[in-house]
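2024-03-11 09:14:02 INFO receiving multi-entity request
2024-03-11 09:14:02 INFO entity count = two
2024-03-11 09:14:03 INFO echoing inputs for audit
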Amino acid sequence: MIAGDGAGRRVWADLELLDRQLRDRAGTLCGKVDDVELACDEHGRMYASAILTGPGRLLERLGRRRLGGWLVRFMSENAPDGRDASRVPFEYVHSIGAVIDLSLDADEVGTSRTERWTRDHVIAHIVGNRHDPE
Amino acid sequence: MTLSDLLDARVIDGHGSTLGDVCDVRLVQDGPVLAGVTAALRVDALLVGGSKLAARLGYIHREVTAPALLSALVRHLGGPMLLVEWDDVAEWDHETHTVRLAPHARPHRFVASP
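2024-03-11 09:21:47 INFO inference complete, emitting structure
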């Protein structure tokens, strides 16, 4: 649910959505708005259907579509639930302001999946990974 | 389709003249109802022309007005901005990154409310 001024509220997408900070329901920062997915309804009206976040989506926005698309697919295929966590449907957007609040947990958002995957599959196999550098 | 596909797209009017590039997209919360609880943000209008940097800094939308001299300067240098209603868009070509307007389209000069 998008809280704020209610129905009829106006938002400038580039100024007020793109690159805004995302925050989960516990108040944890969980990435930025890297792009916005658009869709058409049955009447042909175009609307914002999802927030896209994460390194793959940012690469796509910056023109590196093949690499970004591969990264998004790779992270989805290797996710435990097989879900594309880089896509946050707008029904999970609670409010839009200086920060965009989501009604999700940070773990459900794709931003840090690359970081977590690297930790679990690469860093965890390096000798001495379990203690801080001396 | 993504917002970044639309931003910076070249806008061509119904007579073939180039109006400028899409600088921002106005969304209005009166779209289809999502998950039965809230209205989606519908694409309502395109802001065309002007300076992208000035818009990103908030000078074009008048969210930022100070310092006054810089505000006036960046808005002047960016040139006039047009507001194009989404209903006036006849075609959006993702491949050529082009938005074509219908012949009856009447873009008007964008004046932000202070």
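2024-03-11 09:21:48 INFO post-check: The interface with chain B takes residues 1-2, 5-15, 17-18, 35-39, 41, 45-49, 52, 60-61, 89-91 of chain A (CB under 8 Å).
2024-03-11 09:21:48 INFO post-check: DSSP finds four helices and eight strands in chain A.
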